[in-house]
Design brief:
Helix content is about 25%, strand content about 20%. β4, α3 and β5 form a beta-alpha-beta unit. The chain is built from 6 helices and 7 strands; from the N terminus they run βαβαββαβαββαα.
Length: about 180
């Protein structure tokens, strides 16, 4: 397991499955990658059923929890990620605000190549009211330039892709090659 450049942290990632499980796929990959780097993760998902086929083996140090509105929740960890503006439960946000040292609160946005991403990445959003009054939420925009959040990739992914033989894989699946049309 690669060493993390910072001490191990406890992360809470909140995800609502909106359509086609893409949001959950992004959150799962992020959670699994952070866990490989030595961190502890709680992935809060309103519909975790897709993980049974998406990630059937699970991942060490990733605890998947069914996010049910109104249910009691534990104390927040060191970092809270709100994936794609899903709004963590008000009680959880209030608990974040009560902590002597509040967690880092990140709103993970969608990948984009638009120019606004560079201007918006790392923008603070002070919470002036509601359960999180006094907290600061920061935006994280994945993107394709150094001024964005970049692209997370699993260690060794490029080497694995280079070794992948698409023709052999298609053959094992019984997919015959087709001439281009």
């Amino acid at each position: 397991m690669p060493a993390s450049p910072c001490p191990p942290l406890h992360w809470d990632i909140f995800c609502r499955v909106v359509d086609n499980h893409g949001d959950l796929g992004v959150c799962w990959r992020l959670a699994a990658d952070l866990a490989r780097r030595g961190h502890a993760l709680r992935l809060w998902v309103d519909d975790p059923s897709a993980l049974s086929w998406m990630a059937p083996e699970g991942a060490a140090s990733v605890q998947v929890l069914h996010w049910i509105d109104g249910a009691p929740m534990p104390e927040p960890g060191d970092v809270v990620i709100e994936a794609f503006g899903c709004d963590p439960p008000a009680g959880f946000v209030a608990a974040m605000a009560r902590k002597p040292e509040p967690p880092t609160w990140i709103n993970l946005e969608y990948l984009s190549a638009e120019s606004y991403v560079e201007r918006s990445h790392r923008l603070p959003s002070p919470q002036r009211g509601g359960p999180g009054a006094g907290l600061v939420q920061c935006f994280s925009y994945p993107g394709f330039t150094a001024a964005t959040g970049g692209l997370r990739r699993e260690p060794g992914l490029a080497d694995e892709q280079a070794r992948f033989d698409a023709g052999a894989w298609r053959s094992r699946q019984g997919i015959a090659p087709r001439a281009c049309e």
